[in-house]
Design brief:
By secondary structure, the chain is of the alpha/beta class. It is built from 18 helices and 16 strands. The chain is about 40% helix and about 15% strand. The strands form two sheets. Strands 1, 2, 3, 4, 5, 6, 7, 8 and 9 form a nine-stranded mixed sheet that branches.
Length: about 500
């Protein structure tokens, strides 16, 4: 018999241990392209039965629903690992559709039929059905009763929440509160906590900064996975799905409609606050080639750097930002951005190269504590290489903690509101991603470094020749915070 073939037995053993093998073996058409490396995080969380609360945020098009609501429960049913599975979704209709998709694979998938035989029993209704192996499946919509329901004495031992929120309901504060209460009161208390074989998996895409999905992602009691379609420079994390060029085109299509924040949430699962301080409409752009800022004598360019103290993958990246300042118009041009994990010698090489590239003779460096240990190697390198660069020490007021950084970044708001800041679209992806998520950005490094332009302007006594519009917020943010002794020799070369 086919089931007794040693090769089949070996393949089934791999499926029993691995979701990746299950997907490839039973769903070759659905999983025709290679998995991206990030998908391993999902498989690892599903394969590990000791992880009982998993929340996954994945971009649109990643096949997360197929993996979580079809392939995963199918594996648990075939190998008789679960007794009572409850798929839940934002509506009962959608939950039942997920259940029907699973049911279809159990009945029509020829590989399932060949290896495990018929799965249908005499109880196969939409609202609740039981497989031939004895596993019950009961789809439920948000708000429906789950707590206290038993099947042959068993409480649910696998609950799979897929798209529990939709774009319409998530914007309503009362609806968000109602869903959260139902989830924590009913869903979380429907399992038998005295047993250790239950699991709850929630999967979706970020739709709101106060969504249930975001709350779970930020809850330390949940094993959290957040996948992104691309990085800050719009380089694809899954080229077999969308190439770099296709990702850029997709992002640009959203940006042209004024919906870049939607792209960040739908495809990068980044939290964009509804009252964001830095809105997309504040972002103005320029063409570096057309503006020819390097030869414009009214524009002075400075390079600002925050040297990272370590290159560990968990640490902050080195951020280097080149900024042009037009003394006549007050315009501020973000000309170049580097955001990477670099060794100390690489940091200096990149900073000096940017100075040369942008014809900048001023390098501002954030210093804290023992300044000489930070500035000495930089000064020494400038002297050794005979570079026409003036080093400016920038004091990290309040330290390097997140609160102090957020306060510094806030000083940029008036400049954006006035339309004074222009981005070079070829390099400002990291800056825009962080600004749009402020103050809940995952990373702060690029916008924190850029915020030092305010201190640089004060230190060098760089004031525009034209009149600046009145802005009370600007006075509140800037007046007392940046009054420092000016640098005497900072000048346009």
């Amino acid at each position: 018999m086919l089931k007794q073939d040693p090769r089949i037995q070996e393949a089934l053993s791999r499926c029993y241990l691995s979701m990746r093998s299950t997907c490839k073996m039973f769903f070759p058409e659905r999983y025709s392209r290679p998995f991206c490396s990030d998908y391993d995080k999902i498989f690892a969380a599903l394969d590990d039965d000791s992880i009982r609360q998993v929340v996954i945020a994945a971009p649109r098009g990643y096949g997360k629903s197929t993996t979580a609501t079809v392939a995963y429960p199918l594996k648990k049913i075939l190998f008789r690992e679960k007794k009572f599975i409850v798929p839940i979704s934002c509506t009962a209709t959608q939950a039942e559709m997920r259940g029907e998709d699973l049911k279809y694979e159990l009945l029509e998938n020829h590989i399932v039929n060949d290896l495990f035989g018929p799965m249908k029993s005499d109880r196969f209704a939409k609202e609740m059905w039981v497989t031939a192996t004895g596993t019950a499946v009961m789809p439920r919509g948000a708000g429906q009763q789950i707590r206290g329901i038993l099947y042959r004495g068993f409480r649910p031992d696998l609950i799979i929440g897929d798209d529990l929120e939709n774009a319409e309901n998530v914007i309503n504060e009362e609806q968000r509160k109602k869903l959260k209460e139902w989830f924590f009161a009913d869903v979380m208390n429907s399992v038998d906590r005295s047993r250790k074989d239950w699991k709850i998996v929630v999967i979706g895409t970020v739709l709101h900064e106060d969504s249930l999905l975001v709350n779970l992602l930020e809850d330390p009691n949940w094993y959290s996975i957040r996948l992104e379609l691309c990085d800050d420079m719009y380089r694809s994390n899954w080229p077999e799905f969308l190439t770099d060029a296709e990702v850029k085109d997709l992002a640009e299509s959203y940006a042209k409609q004024g919906l870049l924040h939607v792209f960040f949430m739908e495809y990068r699962n980044m939290v964009i606050t509804s009252d964001a301080a830095f809105k997309q409409q504040y972002f103005k752009y320029y063409d570096e080639a057309k503006e020819d800022l390097t030869s414009n004598r009214a524009v002075e360019t400075v390079v600002i750097m925050d040297p990272a103290r370590t290159t560990e993958s968990s640490s902050a990246k080195t951020a280097i930002v080149g900024v042009g300042i037009n003394s006549k118009t007050g315009a501020i041009y973000v000309r170049d951005v580097i955001n990477d994990r670099l060794h100390p010698d690489e940091q200096l090489d990149e900073a000096f190269a940017m100075c040369n590239r942008l014809n900048s003779h001023v390098l501002g460096v954030e210093v804290t504590g023992l300044n000489e240990f930070i500035t000495y190697p930089i000064k020494n390198a400038i002297i050794q290489r005979a570079l026409p660069i003036e080093l400016v020490e920038l004091k990290a007021r309040g330290g390097r903690n997140a609160e102090s950084k957020l306060a510094r970044i806030r000083a940029l708001i008036p400049f954006y509101r006035r339309g004074l800041v222009y981005h070079n679209p070829t390099c400002c992806g990291p800056l825009e991603a962080q600004l749009m998520s402020y103050p809940r950005s995952k990373y702060l490094d690029v916008m924190d470094v850029f915020s030092y332009i305010v201190e640089m302007l004060e230190l060098g006594e760089r004031y525009t020749q034209g009149e600046m519009p009145a802005d009370d917020e600007y006075e509140d943010l800037i007046d007392d915070d940046y009054g420092m002794e000016p640098i005497k020799n900072w000048r346009v070369a």
